[in-house]
Each structure stands twice: as C-alpha cells, then as structure tokens.
Amino acid sequence: MVTMGKKVDQEQSYYNDWAHIDHGVDADGRATELRPLALSRPHTQAFHLAWLSLFACFFAAFAAPPILPALRPALVLAPSDASAAAVASLSAALVGRLAMGAACDLLGPRRASGVASLVCALALALAAVYASSPAGFVALRFCAGLSLSNFVANQHWMSRIFAPSGVGLANAVAAGWANVGSAAAQVVMPLAYDLIVLRLGVPITVAWRVAYLIPCAMLITTGLAVLAFPYDLPSGCAYAGGGKGAKGEGFWKVVRGGVCDYRAWVLALTYGYCYGVELIMENVAADFFRRRFRLPMEAAGAAAACFGVMNTVARPAGGVASDVVGRRFGMRGRLWALWAVQSTGAVLCVLVGRMGATEAPSLAATMAVMVACGAFVQAASGLTFGIVPFVSKRSMGVVSGMTASGRRGCRRDRDKPVVLQQLQVHGGGGHLIHWPHQPPLHAPCGAHLFPTLGRDALRPLGNRHRRP
Questions:
Q1: Domain for residue 146, yes or no?
Q2: What is the per-residue pLDDT for 410?
C-alpha cells in the first residue's frame, strides 16, 4: 500500500510539474512534439535560443565571402590567400566541433554554447581590428570558423529537451533555421559595407571592420541570452562540472564511449558528404556567380543566398521524414531514407559541377539546379541527425561532435575529406567542382547496426525507439 501510494504521489507530482505545458511530454519531461509558436518553458524557449545562437554563428562564419571584392584591395589578398582562409575556417569548425562534443557532455550544452559564442565574439573582434595582411585575414576566418562548433551544442541541447519521437524534427528545424544565417550574411554584409562607405564616407580599409561589428554584436547578444537561460534539461541544469558528465562519468569514459563506437565514424563519413558540400558551396558560391556571370557584389550575394535559404524548409523536411519513416519502419526506414536522399543530392551535385564548367552557362538554369541540389543535400543533413540521438545516450555530445566534424582519413587520392575538397574547389579556376565519387560512398549507411533497432536490411530486435 505504501509503495502504491508513493507511485501515485510521483505520478501526481509529474503531472503538476508539466501542467503548464501545452504539448505532450514523456516520462523524463522531454517534449514529444515541436510547437515553435507555443513559447512554453523550457522546451520551446530552449529551441528558439538554440537556433538563434547558432544563426549568429553561421552569420559570423560566412560574413567574409560576400565582401571579398572589398577585402582584396584592403588586405592585399591573392586568390591563394582566399583559399587558405576558407580552409582555415573549415579546419577551425572541424576541430572546434570535436572539442565541443566533450564539453557538452561534461558541462552541458547550454553553458558550452554560451561560452563559445562569447569567446568567438572577442576573438573575431580582435582579429577584425588588427588584421592588416593576408595572414590576418586567415586568422579572421579561423576565429569565425570556430563559432560553428556551436552546432554540436545546438543538436545536443535539442536531443536532451525533445523525446525520440520528435527529436528528428527538432534537430532539423533548429539547425535548418540557424543555417539561414549564412544566407543572411550573403545579403546583409554587402549592403552594410556599401552603406558604411557610400552614405557615411568611411574609408574602405576601415569600412569592412565596422561591418564586422554586426556579427560580433549578434554573438554577444545570443551568448548572454543562452547563459541566462537556466535549463540544460527539462528539469533544469543537471551538469555540475568538475570533470563529470550529467551522470557523473569521468571525462575519458565519456569520450571513449563515443570514439569507440563505429557507428559514429560511419555517420561522420556520410555527413561529410552532405553538410561538407553545403559548407563548400556557401564559401564559394558568391565568388562563383561574381566571376562566372559578372554580377555585382550585392547581386552575387543574393544569388548565393538562395542556396542557404533552402535550409528553412529542406533540413526540417529531412527531420520530418526521419521521424515519419522511423515510426513506420523503425531504424531501417531512417537509414533507407538517408541513403535515397543523399544519393539524389550527389547526382545533382555532379550536375551543378558540369553546368558550371560549360563555356556559356545559363544563370537561371545554374541557380535552379543549385537550389535543387541544396534541397537534397540539406535534407540529408536533417536525416543524419535524426539518427545521431540513437547512437549513444551517455556520449551523445561526443557522437554529435564526431558526426558534425565529418572528417576522416583518406587512403586514395580521390577520397578526400572536406578540407581537401575545399582546396579542390578553390583551385578550379572559378568553376564549381563536382564529386563523381560521392554516390558509392553513401553505401556505408547500411553499416549502421543498432542492437535493439536493427539496420536497413534487418528487422528491429526490440523497441524501435529505445536508445542503446
């Protein structure tokens, strides 16, 4: 009788704690659905803080490419300097995401995200003030690239706030809306630069530095807002620090749990060929349209922004598809959907490269194929992070960081990580480079084995949404 009474009291306490929530929650208090307009605390408020914080990071990371015509004379940049800076930005993102994974597991995603935004804002401001040479520009892009490590905190936070039945959509929408920050930078930075030079009469050597106040202010504002929010988990902040994770595991135990899981490495491989392509396109698209079609800086930025804007619907669509097929077919459905969408994106990627290499390409046709390619590539990213939360609950941050980094060794000349692909693109004489080796590399999707969830060719062995 006493046990029954305690159970009733616990259930009553559970319903009282979440009585103010206008959407469903599971036994751990995680939201079972995403309702962005509800503004309920903590689920929806955490969602909005997460994507706005990452939006500022994407804006900062891609603020330089659209104003390269102004930066070249101001900093005496050669084409190779722009390439080196782009590689530095991507390298910083890769290293930062690996470190952010462990930080999220040990400190919590909220603290890790807020501190990262503030540190990157300070580093970016100092780099913008003191940059006066190509080396300074490389340092500027490196500092901006570090802010993209916030992506791991974004996905980790959503995976803690939302239940498995809705985490695919939550992860995809939070990342998709945040990715639009790169498109916003393509439009806002050229306009801000022109306003500062033409209307305020600021010299060009100073104008671009003043324009960089925009991403710095965005990073500081969102970083402080995230740190002021008290919820890492639906129940509050359960990360005490001191070298321990949410459950008290030591640092190396948390890291080992992710690094020794081969599924994390397979996800990193597949993600490198969807999100990696997206990063490269956002780095080179504005310059490509400016050189290939002789568009002015503002028009080239607007054309390049069309690729990033697709994130508002494409990546969330991937998350929705992952959850829908997951409810119907389990993990097999999630894996098959990822393979199909990413393979289609690879074919379109090849087509974009072919069209860009023609002697007289059509602007309308090139943009149409580029947008279609972006839709499938970004949807594949959403589908990938619909799988990540099921790999390891204990080391979710490490797994997210490994996946988001998307880097791997290369045993053949044509099997290149994202950074080497970036070098390939910038060495292509202004043409977009295609990757014909992409489709065969998507086959590892079938190698994911989840003991209770099955894989693409096998039936699940147990509860399809239970995490290993």
A1: yes
A2: 36
